[in-house]
Amino acid sequence: MEEMILSLRGIRKSFGDAEVLKGISLDVKQGEFITLLGSSGCGKTTTLRIIAGLEQPDEGRVILEGKDVTREEPHKRDVNTVFQSYALFPHMDVASNVAYGLKIRKVPKEEQKKRVKEVLQLVQLEGFGKRKPSELSGGQRQRVAIARAIVNNPRVLLLDEPLGALDLQLRRQMQLELKRLQKKLGITFIYITHDQEEAINMSDRIVVMNAGSFEQVGTPDEVYHHPRTSFVAKFVGSANIIHEEGKTLAVRSENLLFAKQGASDKYCVRNGAVKEKSFAGGLLRVVFVLEDGTELTASRHGIDTDVREGEQVKIGWLPEHAVEVEDDLPEEGTGNPGTGGRMPREKLEAAELKGDRS
Amino acid sequence: MSRPASGAAAGKIGGAGRRSRGVWLTALPLYLFTIVFVAGPLVYMLVLSFQTKAEGWGVEQVFTWNNYLRILDPVYLDTFLQSLKLAVSTTLLVVLIGYPFGYFMAKLSQAWKRRMMMLIMIPFWTSSLIRLYGWMILLQAKGAVYQTVRFLGFDIDPLKVLYTYPAVLIGMVYALLPFMMLSVYSSAEKMDWSLVEAARDLGASPMKAFLSVTLKLTMPGLLSGVILTFVPSMGLFFIADILGGNKIVLVGSLIQDQLTRGADWPFAAALAVVLMIMTTLLIFLYQKVTHSTELEGLF
């Protein structure tokens, strides 16, 4: 078995009556880039704080390099955090902020200077050593926070939505830089985000979190193409959830086709009305309402299509694009295991389906 | 790249430089008030301290150094020393009790913060003199303080509780403690506690994190608390008078004595000037030692 740098074993945590973590377990390999993906309040920050030692789990164990550190104080763990708010010391200049961890560990002065210089170079902040955090821009502060953490060469670096406060362009640029940095340093990253694009772009593995549990742990490809539950399908792939004969199917919007009439018998087809059309991010999104009230969204390239709002259309998808998932809506019960078979479908003529798969 | 960097500093400097005539006019009453009620009396006191006491009652317009030379008399020097000793020990005790109090108060929930604030403020609804008489009752022979100390198993002379140095110290600490609590609290309240977590995360023990982050960031509150304690404690003569009897003479009592019973205004003025210079120098020294320039809610 491969050596795990960090393991979580059945971690539970409650704040008052609210159970924030419901028994989560995870194994992280050396050098891995792991992302905890979930919406706010799903417990991802609490997970990170428990790894850092800033929070104590009610149950479960945290194992760092084979050693149980569950009750170990934060300053004794070889783990560093990049905080969401950066938490830079306002009374120290950039160099002192970065040198803080080294100074605490009584690294010799000369060595401190050398390493601070190296790290500032690495995050492209040479010459900023004498500035105060209040004199930096958001992106620069962010880099200082990263520099302050990686200068200590931690076994694991925890990053709590580090790019959350930055604008889109800077965020994209920093995503690439962080990934580059992680590869170069070989440090294990545990990264928190609520942005699925960010997670897919950067991670080796993604942990999709929902209401204090891990919904699915897998590579970006697995999570995107083979979602285990309807939550993962919706959250990561923005997929449509279709209930059919006791099964729950997930079809991503780009695989959903529509036409005024007709389709080949290769397709599963439903009847529905066009509810609304909108153009965003280079894609046209069309929302349909099926006869049973289910809403489906299809996306395709272009800025408009010939279907009008209110018009009755056929909506179809290829069976191989429908992934059977577990339904995690409590009133529906958990889905049945096993892979989805062929779905019954209406037979329609192939020639008339205006499919525009992307 | 440095645009946001200089923002904060430039704002201040620019604001001062661009002061228009309108601003001057609105500030004028403030200047007038300060000149008439602060600078005026100070200058008058300084002038008075170089004049001569008239026979009987009043002041003669004759220049002299004598008032200052008189202070060098061991009796008066000793009074200064006593005052300084009391002020320093009062301030020290107030820091030791007030700092933790303000620090922990900032960590309470909103509801409890309000309740604690209420508890601190309630005593101010009564005259401080009346509260001091309350302490007299507590400290009197065989009073509540004596009973408590006896109960704890210490044997003390019932007549040696009131009118002693510790009694005066208790009164001083009691009177000045709220100022320290509140100024430390207002500093600690503004603190971003995630900075302490960051320090712990970077390897600092709780003590180290406190010393390198919390203490540094609450220094403005501590400093203004020290000034609010130290300055008045050099002059709060009525506490020493009431709780110390006539045994403990402070510069404050001495000045009051010279003004009323002695009717020696120039000497009282000279004492006041020396007291003021001493206090200012000590605060200046304190600021140098702690490297603090910011003050919480002052200046």
From TrEMBL, chain A:
The gene is potA. Pfam families: ABC_tran, TOBE_2. Its EC number is 7.6.2.11. It comes from Cuneatibacter caecimuris. Residues 6-236 form the ABC transporter domain. The lineage of its organism: Bacteria, Bacillati, Bacillota, Clostridia, Lachnospirales. Belongs to the ABC transporter superfamily. Spermidine/putrescine importer (TC 3.A.1.11.1) family. GO terms for cellular component: ATP-binding cassette (ABC) transporter complex. Part of the ABC transporter complex PotABCD involved in spermidine/putrescine import. Responsible for energy coupling to the transport system. It comes from the Bacteria. GO terms for molecular function: ABC-type putrescine transporter activity; ATP binding; ATP hydrolysis activity. Residues 324-358 are annotated as: Disordered. The complex is composed of two ATP-binding proteins (PotA), two transmembrane proteins (PotB and PotC) and a solute-binding protein (PotD). This is Spermidine/putrescine import ATP-binding protein PotA. Transmembrane segments: none annotated. Keywords: ATP-binding, Cell membrane, Membrane, Nucleotide-binding, Translocase, Transport. It catalyses: ATP + H2O + polyamine-[polyamine-binding protein]Side 1 = ADP + phosphate + polyamineSide 2 + [polyamine-binding protein]Side 1. The keyword ATP-binding applies. It is an enzyme of class 7 (translocase). Residues 343-358 have a biased composition (Basic and acidic residues). InterPro entries: AAA+_ATPase, ABC_SmlMolc_Importer, ABC_transporter-like_ATP-bd, ABC_transporter-like_CS, Mo/tungstate-bd_C_term_dom, P-loop_NTPase, PotA-like, PotA_ATP-bd. The keyword Translocase applies.
Automatic annotation (TrEMBL), chain B:
GO terms for biological process: transmembrane transport. GO terms for cellular component: plasma membrane. The chain crosses the membrane at residues 22-47, 86-106, 118-141, 161-185, 222-245, 265-286. InterPro entries: MetI-like, MetI-like_sf. CDD domains: TM_PBP2. Keywords: Cell membrane, Membrane, Transmembrane, Transmembrane helix, Transport. Belongs to the binding-protein-dependent transport system permease family. CysTW subfamily. This is Spermidine/putrescine transport system permease protein. It comes from Cuneatibacter caecimuris.
